[in-house]
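sorry for the late reply, my laptop died twice this morning and i had to redo everyting from scratch. anyway the thing you sent over, i finally got around to it. pasting the sequence first so we're on the same page, its 76 residues, then the predicted structure underneath. double check i copied it right bc i was rushing
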Amino acid sequence: MDKWREDWRQLNRRMPDIHQDEYTVEGLSHLLGIPRDVISHEITTGELHANRVGGHTICISRDAVLDWLQRRGVGI
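ok and here's the structure:
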């Protein structure tokens, strides 16, 4: 039973949740398969809107992600 639980935990860590209301840069990177640097650059340039405090990104809303993906079009 312990082996099963550990396997389940490992699987959950690797599978991104596409139904979240907010994402971190790392979580969004994992979800979309886009490097963190690209997502950070898009936030810095204002192409991808995110909640920031100082120079740190706190969260990226699902709506902002969907809007950004629609504007980027095919070939993300």
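The mean pLDDT is 83.
thats about all i looked at so far, will dig more tmrw
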